[in-house]
């Protein structure tokens, strides 16, 4: 009975993606996600620098009481 199942598994047409294909798909998706994260980080840092420069550099200390 096991021999029959093994024979069917070996001779059946392959359906679905193999492990290598899944690894490649996952790597591509991860690469795209990392690229988008880097792009968004760069845009946020640039906007942050722009906001900081528009408000005088941000070196005032937050408006605390001076003695």
Secondary-structure blueprint of this entry?
Elements: H1 2-11, H2 19-54
H/E element order: HH
Rg value: 28 Å
What would you call the shape? Answer: rod-shaped
The count of DSSP E runs of length 2 or more, i.e. the number of strands, is: 0
User: Mean pLDDT, rounded to whole units?
Assistant: 84
What structural class do the secondary elements suggest?
Answer: mainly alpha
Distance between the termini: 91 Å
Fraction of residues in helix: 55-70%
* Low-pLDDT stretches: none
State which percent range the strand residues make up: under 5%
* Largest sheet, strands/sense/barrel: none
Task: Quickly count the helices.
Answer: 2
Describe, in short, the structure shown.
The protein has 67 residues and is an all-alpha fold. The protein contains two helices and no strands. It has helices at 2-11, 19-54.
Describe the model.
There is one protein chain. This protein has helices at residues 2-11, 19-54. It is mostly helical. The chain starts with a helix and ends in a 13-residue tail after the last helix.
